[in-house]
Task: structure prediction
Amino acid sequence: MLIDHTDQEQMMAVRDGDLDALGPLFEKYNKALYHHFLMQTGHTQISEDLVQEVFFRILKYRHTYRGESKFSTWLYSIGHNVKMDYYRKKKMKTVALDNANRVASKDPEPDTQTEKNNEAHLVHQALQRLSEDKREVLILSRFQNMKYEEIAEVTGCAVGTIKARVHHALKALSTIYLELSGESAS
Result:
């Protein structure tokens, strides 16, 4: 397994008391972590709060970092726990998706942009209808490009369970997407 030594070395420095070393890690991971939470919660403010809580916990529990796996795997493990704590605290199972429109740097033709927006909206709606465990593994595997072994470490599940969840999540996502778009599965 290839490990990003720069991330590991920076986190080791944070663990050993160099808190300034956390800055580059925050800059590198905060946007990806924010989008990860946004895809799961559908709320910008909640996602921002969860990112802040992850980095707060990194500081608070920095002494527990051992560097045995990739830093990003440790980061997403903390993120998983933060999200679960949030849902437990708020007694929420699902959160509706809010309007997360993004402004493109180059606007395509109006019809193309409308079609892409509709497709993206349907995908987000379909994601929100998945069970939380399926949604999480799908986001980690397809949007965060994590390997099954890393997802297993993040979630505390067996690799086989992760593979099955991703398979079932993709199948369910496809079915829900087709229902939402008015098409039928063939």
The CA atoms of residues 78 and 159 lie 19 Å apart.
